[in-house]
Amino acid sequence: MPHITLPTDAPGIRGPLAFRPDAAKHLLGLAETILRQPASLEPGERETIAAWTSHLNGCKFCMKSHAAAARAWLGSERSAALDRLLAAEDADGFSPKMQALLELSRALQGCVLGVTPEHVARARAAGASDHDIHDTVLITAAFCMYNRYVEGLGTREAEEHEYELTGRRLRDQGYAPGRD
Amino acid sequence: MPHITLPTDAPGIRGPLAFRPDAAKHLLGLAETILRQPASLEPGERETIAAWTSHLNGCKFCMKSHAAAARAWLGSERSAALDRLLAAEDADGFSPKMQALLELSRALQGCVLGVTPEHVARARAAGASDHDIHDTVLITAAFCMYNRYVEGLGTREAEEHEYELTGRRLRDQGYAPGRD
Fold first, then answer.
1. Which member of B19, B113, B134 has the closest CB to residue A20?
2. What is the pLDDT of residues B101-149, one digit of tens each?
């Protein structure tokens, strides 16, 4: 049971979004912008950072939803790497740049003050641009919000078979308000 | 020095917002919605939760900016209570409902999975509504994002004399995109 009465019993963030549509517009617009609009990192890489942050935060609904979205974008080789990342926190199979960005993301997820110049230097040495670093920071930060919104209101997980469909829908149709 | 080259040397979140205007639109729209639009909690109470979360996260720019906004809304008696809250983590002087919501906020700031049914029951016993609980969760969650965006990119604090002016501007003009 969620902690408050929500207008729908849909899983995860969908109940809270329906409770407060004026906030939902911005929450969904932000997700669309940072995960799916053209950027220096591919959408599959950005969804990987979203799933990784959600994994580290223990938010299973967001982790499974965004892992499914990442798999929908990534080829089979990198999908296998994603599975290892989320199962064993082993980033083998990702590019050195992604590995350094995932470390930076982990530092920021764990602590607001966690990113050091060394994290940034390692990412740059592996080829990360200002845009790559910015987007890694903002995606990690945003999922420290979305995860708390989902868990802080005590929402439920989706059924296991629902996530793959969600992932393909997020790839194909995105996060625009009005989608369900 | 921030970790990336930002288009302005303005303090805190203003540089990151200028770096990525398409995301800034949603980040500012969300702040306007959750902090300043009509809701069951007064704007001064919602700014207090924003300042409290930022204090717990160690983000001085956000803490000082939103404490100043809270003081601009609250009367002198509750501004003195806010000062005690941020200096000594002592919520004396706030209503029992606000004290329970600040405890719920602290639990969620510390851990994505930190809110228990007991936190919610204590808030309800002190008179909190579904809207009060929802907004406390979303504001706390959002500042776990804004704080990471500001600190994860290594931005600088404002000068001490700037915060009071910022607080009054946030009360009078809000967070709408296009303000500086």
1. B134
2. 999 999 999 999 999 999 999 999 999 999 999 999 999 999 999 999 9
Do residue A147 and residue B37 have CB atoms under 8 angstroms apart? no
- Position A80 scores a pLDDT of 97
Q: Is residue B8 part of a domain?
A: no
pTM (whole model) above 0.90: yes
Residues of the domain holding A92:
18-173
Domain annotation covers residue B11: no
Q: Do A133 and B23 touch (CB under 8 A)?
A: no
In a domain, A8, yes or no: no
Q: For residue A52, what is the domain's CATH number? A: 1.20.1290.10
B134: nearest CB among A22, A147, A153: A153
Do B106 and B91 meet the contact criterion of CB atoms below 8 Å apart? no
Separation between Cα atoms, residue A102 and residue A45, nearest integer Å: 10
Are A22 and B33 in contact by the 8 Å Cβ rule? The answer is yes
The answer to whether A26 contacts B29, with C-beta atoms less than 8 Å apart, is yes
**Is residue A139 a part of any domain in this protein?**
yes
Q: What is the pLDDT of residues A139-167, one digit of tens each?
A: 999 999 999 999 999 999 999 999 999 99
Q: How many domains does chain A have?
A: 1
Residue closest to B133 by CA, chosen among A48, A169, A4: A4
